[in-house]
Structures are given as structure tokens and as C-alpha cells.
């Protein structure tokens, strides 16, 4: 039976035009929601309505920039009158060896993955408090929040920070009926991972460690995010839900032969 858990709700999805974010956007719309997608992909943002339908508004926004994040929340309220859910999905990895990593390189990873989640959480929560409480925030972290990977110092450290930010926010905001949870995907078939998994030897190295024997579809991560955002998870707060086909039971593959 089709679900309609998000009828009449308003969500923001950052990174919402591609991969996991796009799957979240599609599912929210399918369940009756209205969505503002915020992304730096100008072309995709320009065609948001054609891609997702009239209940989705696209806004160009760099989630590492504080004024832009504030403007995204304001846009959701201007267009749709309220804000009910904020999905911090924008992120990505710029790999590099720790000893060679410039401070700018490090900061790029921290800004894209951790500053963005901090700013999204801050401005969504401020709006929720203005509305009198309630509201949900979902932070997309990564299995790398728990498990290091070669050349992942900036990314993995930022994602571990996202999980602690999630717990911190749940502590500070839970008394106002605001729930903040993280989802940590394993390996998901999206444009982000395509360059890796297109190389058969690299894909095989990953799959050897993933008991499910395959990558996740973005829709499987979206389903976990929407569960946490729905009233089915009304008593779940400050949690990090790992969605990885049991990969965490085996450890990260040694990809050094494939890395520069
Ligand atoms: N794909 C995976 O295997 C995987 C695994 C674990 C975690 N994740 C996390 O899931 C999230 C989504 O990843 P994906 O695989 O869907 O990637 P993706 O590259 O398909 O989508 C990321 C989106 O974020 C947007 N974006 C990038 N920088 C931005 C910025 N500064 N401001 C606003 N938007 C920005 C991109 O334009 C893109 O549309 C990321 O946070 C990623 O770290 C992905």
C-alpha cells in the first residue's frame, strides 16, 4: 500500500538533485510532501520542476556558506509557509594522504561535510523553535563516521563530527520536540561513487567486504532517512542508523594499490 506520511509537510533537502538527495526528494513528493532542494548544480536546479514536479522548488545554494543556508530556510517558509524537516545530504570526499594534505584541502572536506551539517542544523532548528517546537533533522553521515579509509582523513573525520553534532543537537533540542538523527550509508550507487565502482578491481575489493554482495540503491538510503523523519520514529533521537548491508562487520578494504 502506498504511504503518505509526509502529506502537507515542507522539507528542505540539501544536495537534493543527485544520488541520495534526489531519492529522498522523490520519495517525499511521492508521499505527499513539498520540498525545497538546495544544491550548487545550477543546471539541475534550473530544471527542478521538470525533474521532480510542481511540489519541488529548486534553489542554488552553497551549504558551506552561512547566508545561503539561512536563505534556503527562509525560502521554504516564503514558498510553503512552514518547515517540518531538514535533510542535510550535500557532501563529498576529496581524498588525500594525511602527510601531504594542505590545510586548505583538509578544510575543504570539513567545510563540505561538517560545516554544512552544522549550518543546516542551526538554521532548521532556529525555525522549528520559532514555530513553537517539533520538527526533524536528518544528517547523512557515512560508514566512514565509524571506520577510517585510506586517504580519507578529512572526510572520515568530518563524518564522525556529523554524528557527534547529531547527538549534541538531540541533547540541546530534544526538550522542544525536535528530533535529530543521522544515517550512515555504506557503499551506494550514485555519481559520487561511480568513478570507483566503474573500475572492476576496485568494485570487487569493496564487494568482498560487503556481505550483501552489492551496492545499495539510493532509494534504500532514502527509505531509512524517511523512516527516521516520520512519526514511526517518534521516540528515536540522537541516533546514527548504519545502512550498509552488514559491511561494518568486516572492515574497510585496503584500496592502497588503487590510490595515487
Ligand atoms: N554514495 C555513497 O556511497 C555514500 C556513502 C556514504 C555517505 N554518502 C554521503 O551521502 C551524501 C550524498 O552523496 P551522494 O552519493 O548522493 O553524492 P552525489 O554526488 O550524487 O550528490 C551530492 C550532491 O551534493 C551537491 N553539493 C556538493 N557540494 C555542495 C555544496 N557546497 N552545497 C550544496 N550542494 C552541494 C552536489 O551538487 C550533488 O548534487 C554525501 O554527504 C555523502 O558523503 C554517500
How would you explain this protein's 3D organization?
The protein is α/β, with parallel strands linked by helices and 260 residues long. It has a single domain (10-258), classed as 3-Layer(aba) Sandwich (Rossmann fold). The protein contains 9 helices and 7 strands. It has a 7-stranded parallel beta sheet, sandwiched between helices. The model has no long low-confidence stretch (mean pLDDT 97). Bound molecules: nicotinamide-adenine-dinucleotide (NAD). The site of nicotinamide-adenine-dinucleotide (NAD) has 29 residues, from helix 1, strand 2 and helix 7.
In short:
Keywords: NADP, Oxidoreductase. The chain has 260 residues and is an alpha/beta fold.
Keywords:
alpha/beta; Rossmann fold; seven-stranded parallel β-sheet; 9 helices; binds nicotinamide-adenine-dinucleotide
Biggest beta sheet attributes: 7 strands, parallel
* Straight-line distance between termini: 49 Å
Tally of alpha and pi helices:
9
Q: How many structural domains can be distinguished in the coordinates?
A: 1
Write out the CATH superfamily name.
Answer: NAD(P)-binding Rossmann-like Domain
> How many strands in all?
7
Q: What hetero molecules are in the model?
A: nicotinamide-adenine-dinucleotide
Strand order of the largest sheet: 3-2-1-4-5-6-7
Q: Give the SSE order as H and E letters.
A: EHEHHEHEHEHEHHHE
Q: Estimate the global geometry from the Cα principal axes.
A: globular
| CATH class designation | Alpha Beta
Please tell me the overall pLDDT. Answer: 97
Helix content: 40-55%
Uncertain stretches of 5 or more adjacent residues: none
CATH A-level architecture: 3-Layer(aba) Sandwich
Organism: Coniosporium apollinis (strain CBS 100218)
InterPro entries: NAD(P)-bd_dom_sf, Sc_DH/Rdtase_CS, SDR_fam
Keywords: NADP, Oxidoreductase
Family: Belongs to the short-chain dehydrogenases/reductases (SDR) family.
